[in-house]
Amino acid sequence: MPSAIAVDLPSGSYQIQIAPGNLDALGSQAANLGLGKKCLVVSNPLIFKHYGERVLNSLSQSGFQVQSCLLPAGERYKTANSIQKIYDVALENRLERSSTLVALGGGVIGDMTGFAAATWLRGINFIQVPTSLLAMVDASIGGKTGINHPQGKNLIGAFYQPHLVLIDPQVLKTLPAREFRAGMAEVIKYGVIWDLDLFNQLEACPRIEQLRYVSEELLAEILQRSCQAKADVVSQDEKEAGLRAILNYGHTIGHAVESLTGYRVVNHGEAVGIGMVAAGAIALALDLWDKESLERQNVLIKKTALPTKLPKGIEIEAIVDSLQTDKKVKDGKVRFILPTAIGKVEITDKVPAEVIREVLGEMRSH
């Protein structure tokens, strides 16, 4: 199932390489890019224990001088403090402008490594080696990098494209089931916003809540179609001037839920699942799509064993207030991505606050 997807951008194009066993090809792929000899692999201890040695060997066998920097796992460590640790190791190892940061991990590691690469020496090379489904289909592609502010998610960051995204589907075998479901939330998102055929394929699969129920063919299709969808959107709108905002479907309320629960209660994919249920219900309340489409979306989210209710103890007014700090706010108005059919969405800032409150009220955990 090897495939290569091009992300064509004004700032420079790169490839998403998908193939089983790709981890061992990292060195030769990186060497083909003509990068400088110094490499710093950023990872977390668990991922590094599984795959660190293979990645370091692959790079050093291709002539790279490789060091590593390990950061704690989890969204709550996506802070300026972690970035400082990367800078310290970069300085210690005298990384130069021609040097490369390699992100080996999930979305959090990818976001932080990318931000460090964008800002160290005003920008050095950067390669994404995503190890979670969520990072493979979404976070590693498109150049969004960043860290969280105590008041909101991803408020500090930069658009900074990688030189390569290298995906090895075999690493998903060590991914915890909860993290696999989190990635499936983003896959469902692509189905709703862009790719009806992908949505239909997920619908036809009896079980999709764990990797072992997903055939190799369907996994290949999920990776290929999701990466292609993201590449298509980003190629048309690199810096979110318009179309790219549709990739935030489910994220508006999702981000609020994540930050209000201190990134400890729900993970990113679970928050997106909750956010898609909310956005779907708002779209129905505004007559943008029909009840049957909403039901199909929600059945698929439930089939993935993702939450569809708000976490206990979260105040609706706190969510409404939190929406005002979202990056997508323009002229004080919150922009929502709302579906008009499965496979199509629109961007609107005309969602009355009472509709948001009503929908969230229905989603309270009892």
TrEMBL record:
3-dehydroquinate synthase N-terminal domain: residues covered: 69-181
Organism, scientific name: Merismopedia glauca CCAP 1448/3
Cofactor(s) it depends on: Co(2+); Zn(2+); NAD(+)
Xref: CDD domains: DHQS (cd08195)
Name of the protein described by the UniProt record: 3-dehydroquinate synthase
Pfam family, one: DHQS_C
HAMAP family: DHQ_synthase
Positions contributing to Zn(2+) binding: 186, 251, 268
Principal cellular location given in the protein's record: cytoplasm
Alphabetical keyword list: Amino-acid biosynthesis, Aromatic amino acid biosynthesis, Cobalt, Cytoplasm, Lyase, Metal-binding, NAD, Nucleotide-binding, Zinc
Catalytic reaction list: 7-phospho-2-dehydro-3-deoxy-D-arabino-heptonate = 3-dehydroquinate + phosphate
Family: Belongs to the sugar phosphate cyclases superfamily. Dehydroquinate synthase family.
